[in-house]
Design goal:
Blueprint: H1 2-21, H2 33-40, H3 42-45, H4 49-65, E1 67-70, H5 77-88, E2 104-108, E3 129-131, E4 139-143, H6 144-152, H7 160-170, H8 181-184, H9 189-204, H10 218-231, H11 233-239, H12 241-250
Parallel strand pairs: 1-2, 2-4
Antiparallel strand pairs: 3-4
């Protein structure tokens, strides 16, 4: 009898393990998403037809792996497109990338505070996006307003969701510290630190066109500089050639 019970338990464990690890079915994206991507996502628009197909496939995989839920706001088709695009843009240079440190995204209607409250009565709700910690580990919280603004203005250097996904990449080596060792490799860390400290000093002396938030910490510098790198690559290359080359190496983007 005991051996029968042990056998049943083992079979149950095997079945459960298979259920957990088996890949989720990846749905084909709606055909009209291509037109929406062309209209709203400049990064996608500049890709070749072949790479656009790869981009859509990567979006589909991301949406099959990560849940996206709205709090007091409806998740519309455009929100899914923009969030998935923001996830793929920083890692498009890597094949078969999967965010194993992200399981879900929570979307609030507008900005929120450190306690994740977003009441209009709260004057301290200034946060547009964040990577969760503690009980929100493997979660990302985004403002719907910030998601839309990130792609409405195609001439600025700011993209909140891309910023937060870069934080996730930074966190791959265990710490969100602005040192992308997982992406760059140890031999490039010292040159990166030298460039980062030099530019942070310029930011804090108000002599850099990288926005001020990049001067508040190493982690924020990496994320803010990466926003600029993806949003305005030609201008970034012109203004910051050394940083551009380093981030091209980091994100495996052809120079």
């Amino acid at each position: 009898m005991i051996y029968t019970l042990i056998f049943i338990v083992l079979v149950a464990i095997i079945v459960y393990t298979f259920y957990i690890i088996k890949p989720k079915k990846i749905k084909q994206l709606p055909l009209h998403w291509h037109d929406m991507l062309l209209k709203h996502v400049l990064f996608y628009k500049h890709l070749s037809v072949k790479d656009q197909a790869v981009f859509r496939q990567r979006m589909s995989l991301f949406l099959s792996e990560v849940t996206i839920d709205g709090v007091n706001t409806e998740i519309e088709e455009l929100d899914l497109i923009l969030i998935a695009s923001s996830a793929i843009i920083p890692v498009f240079g890597f094949s078969n990338w999967s965010y194993n440190n992200l399981s879900g995204i929570i979307v609030y209607p507008d900005s929120f505070n450190e306690d994740l409250q977003f009441s209009d009565l709260d004057g301290n709700k200034k946060i547009l996006g964040m990577v969760g910690t503690g009980r929100f580990e493997k979660q990302m919280i985004l403002s719907k307003k910030a998601i839309r603004l990130a792609f409405n203005n195609k001439t600025d250097k700011h993209n909140t969701p891309v910023h937060e996904f870069v934080h996730l990449l930074d966190k791959m080596d265990g710490e969100t510290d602005g040192i992308p060792e997982y992406l760059l490799g140890k031999e490039y860390i010292e040159p990166w630190l030298e460039l980062m400290y030099k530019e942070m000093e310029r930011i804090n002396n108000d002599t850099s066109d990288i926005r001020n938030y990049g001067g508040t910490s190493q982690a924020e510098f990496f994320a803010v500089a990466s926003e600029y790198f993806f949003e305005r690559p030609k201008l970034f290359k012109q203004k910051h050639p050394e940083l551009y080359n380093m981030l091209s190496l980091c994100f495996q983007k052809p120079k």
